[in-house]
Amino acid sequence: MDHKIFLGTYTKKDSKGIYTITLDTDTQELKDLELAAEAGSPTYLDLSSDASLLYSVLKEDSDHGGVISFKKDADGNYQKAAVSTAEGAAPCYVAYDEKRNFVYTANYHQGEVAVYKTDTDGQLTLTDTVAHSGSSAHENQDAPHAHYFNLTPDEKYLIACDLGTDEVFTYEVTDEGKINEVSHVNTEPGTGPRHVVFHPNEKFVYVFGELSSEVIAMTYDKDSGTLEPFQTVPSIPESHTDFNSGAAIRVSPDGKFLYASNRGHNSLVSYRINETDGTLELIGWTSTEGDFPRDFNLDPSGKFVVVGHQESDNLTLFERDEDTGRLTLLQKDVYAPEVVCVAFA
After folding, report:
1. Taking residues 89-113, what's their average pLDDT?
2. I need a surface site. Which of 102, 115, 176, 307 has the fewest CB within 10 A?
3. 103, 95 Cβ separation under 8 angstroms
């Protein structure tokens, strides 16, 4: 079976924008890299369920950034549908709410989250922004740095991570696209919460600290939208004293294992998830066979893991043991330029 993967990239070197590559699960290989759409540093992206609409971060130039949308035409090609940019840095995260036709973004440099109204043609209209405030203990936390903004699985709330203020927010969004804060929780100073992932049972949330290289397990209350931390575990071994930066975090579809990528240690860390209380038990580390694994993802079956590397311009493919959670390398040195987002269609 073939699975199409969309790759968000920086365009600082050889990349021209958004690429696709195919995972052939029969031959267990990645193949057929193609440029899907030209865009300036489309570093994060999201798609509609049928892949007819594609939304991406966009950097127009050094002074302007925003969001761009593409619509798939009758020939299967992605044509630019709309652009919404403003003065200032581009966002670092984008998510598509297909049910309500909203697009959500988080902007690291401006420390704010935003909502856009969209439609089946991919048009974009900004409806609201919320600017965070504050700072924290790390040298990279002199100001707010929003890094994640997406729906909870029950679609009742939005979760936002602010790497600069060590806060994880819960918001509501109105039918008009206005954002209202519901609650927030503080992580330990210097954590730098970057991304979150929900367990399939929707009871547990796992937050990855970019600056502390730690995973924080939290409970999620569906009624109130509140989060409550209950465990913190390291994502790198004690022996690694050089630079590291936490990046992406994923849970296997069966809810039994959690994985996170380390930039610097250049590894995927694996944990077993206790099905009763959501606590994490370390399994070990797997080299990603590349430099700066900015993002990775599991295929829909959960049997394969694809890792993208920002600095070494390569993808790696692993097979995942569904019983032990361990990863076996299948393919490395698959060329793909400046990859920072890996999204299965």
Report:
1. 98
2. 176
3. yes
Say if residues 219 and 278 touch (Cβ distance below 8 Å): yes
Strand order in the sheet with 112-117: 93-97, 102-107, 112-117, 125-131
pLDDT over threshold 90, residue 61: no
Residues forming a β-bridge with 296: 307
Q: Phi then psi for 99, rounded to 5 degrees?
A: -65, -40
- The CA-atom distances, in angstroms, between 272 and each of 56, 117, 207, 254, 287 are 33, 39, 16, 11, 18
**pTM, 2 dp:** 0.98
Q: Which amino acid, one-letter code, is at 49?
A: S
Tokens of 118: 């969209």
Residue 325 binned pLDDT confidence (cut-offs 50, 70, 90)? very high
Query: To 5 degrees, how large is the angle CA 146–CA 37–CA 340?
Result: 40
Q: Residue range 115-139: average pLDDT? A: 98
User: Using CA of residue 286, residue 312, residue 252, residue 303, what is the dihedral sign?
Assistant: negative
The Cα–Cα gap between 141 and 164 comes to 4
Q: How far apart are CA 112 and CA 133, in angstroms?
A: 9
User: What is each CA distance from 3 to 6, 28, 254, 300, 341, in whole angstroms?
Assistant: 10, 11, 19, 9, 16
CA distance 138 to 145: 12
Note the pLDDT tens digit of each residue in 131-188: 999 999 999 999 999 999 999 999 999 999 999 999 999 999 999 999 999 999 999 9
Separation between Cα atoms, residue 93 and residue 56, nearest integer Å: 8
What is the C-alpha separation between 57 and 94, in angstroms, rounded? 6
Quick check: 145 and 164 in contact, CB under 8 A? Answer: yes
How far apart (Å, rounded) are the C-alpha atoms in residues 297 and 294? 11
